[in-house]
Design a protein that fits this description.
Distance between the termini: 104 Å
Number of helices: 3
Radius of gyration: 36 Å
Low-confidence stretches: none
Length: about 100
């Protein structure tokens, strides 16, 4: 009987530290294997590199569009660009121009 009480007491005394150990192991496993863990850093670096390339392409496109906006500024518009846009978008030509279809 005394031995049974001794074993029961040891088990009861080990429940708290055992639960704490399991909790720490779960947190450590999540820190290593989780979606934001150590093993996910490589994927994040790859994604960051891809997004950097996307950003560079978008910046080039933005700069080209900004240049076009600057050329269309009403205070100092580029006459060649305005003529090109009129011919292309509105289908407007001068009476003395000859149109040669390329297709």
């Amino acid at each position: 009987m005394a031995q049974r009480e001794k074993i029961t007491g040891l088990i009861k005394a080990a429940i708290g530290p055992g639960f704490a150990l399991l909790t720490l192991l779960a947190i450590a496993g999540y820190a290593v294997l989780g979606p934001t863990g150590i093993l996910a850093w490589g994927d994040y670096q790859k994604t960051l590199d891809e997004r950097g390339l996307q950003l560079a392409k978008l910046e080039i496109e933005r700069d080209a569009l900004q240049n076009r906006v600057n050329l269309l500024d009403p205070n100092g518009a580029d006459p060649d660009l305005i003529g090109e846009l009129l011919r292309k978008e509105v289908n407007v030509v001068h009476p003395d121009e000859i149109i040669v279809p390329l297709k």
